[in-house]
Amino acid sequence: MTPKERFKIALECKPPPKGRVPHFELVFFLTMEAFGKVHPSHRSFHQWDQMSETERQVQREDMADIYVKTAERYEHSAIFLHPNPGSFEEVCRLIDIVKEKTNDKYMIMIHGGATYGIPNGTEMANFSYWLADKPDEAKKNADTMVNNALDTAAKYKKHGGLDCFAMCTDYCLNTGPFLSPGQFSEFVTPYLIKLVKGYRDMGFYTIMHTDGNIMPILDQLAQSKPHALQSLDPQAKVDIKEVKKLVGDRICLIGNVNCGLLQTGTDEQVIESARYCLKHGMPGGGYVFSTSNCVYTGMALKRYELILDVWRKKGNY
């Protein structure tokens, strides 16, 4: 079976085949440490319009190579593209190049979030006032964001090559959601349901990413019926054992290996976190091994390689 086929089985919560549990990361930023190459997201292309088409193609090929090399070296089942530049045309070109280089071996995804998430600190107060003072306007805007995202998704569907949308929208802090569960049910959940249904109706897989303590809104996230939930943030006391019990029979779980420990913990703590996730995520299928966020800049590469060693030894059906 290809990595993509195994990933699909996990996302669909089907009985797992023999072999290793799938693995991927939302982002692997340590490309300089691993390959001596700057990650595509960290490149500046202010002069893109001044480049010749030949120069642009060199850049596209190089970025695609980084994604492919990452997937191959670290045995990822999916590739989350972060196109830079990010125009529709450039995204399609990058999808095509990666597909050609991999012969459809990996699931290809891009960002597809289109609901309200946590505003930045300078906008939080005004956003809160807006929801309270003009709720109808806020709901209309929420619906427009979803409609625009689905219109764009239809274009990707027509182009072909894209498999999945990762809806990366942070809803929660470590203490809980940024909106009360009641407000969340009013300003987010109906639009998240519409977004996921729209993507699924077009044949795309859907992964919902949010950090923080999702437990007060877990039922609403499950109600939207994404194929998977990613992060399962242990730093916010989200326990994969509990989440598996509550929704793991119908939603694939991705993550829960403690990023905080990867940064500051001991090797023993990191190993135990990885083992715990495999022990409680794997039974019955519907689990993808992953950190609780991503492999971010500043994390020691050897720490990521440490959890992969645990996965290779313990993550087999």
UniProtKB/TrEMBL annotation:
Domain of life of the native organism: Bacteria
GO-annotated molecular function: uroporphyrinogen decarboxylase activity
A GO BP entry: porphyrin-containing compound biosynthetic process
Domain Uroporphyrinogen decarboxylase (URO-D): 85-310
InterPro entries for this protein: Methanogen_methyltrans, UROD/MetE-like_sf, Uroporphyrinogen_deCOase
Protein name: Uroporphyrinogen decarboxylase (URO-D) domain-containing protein
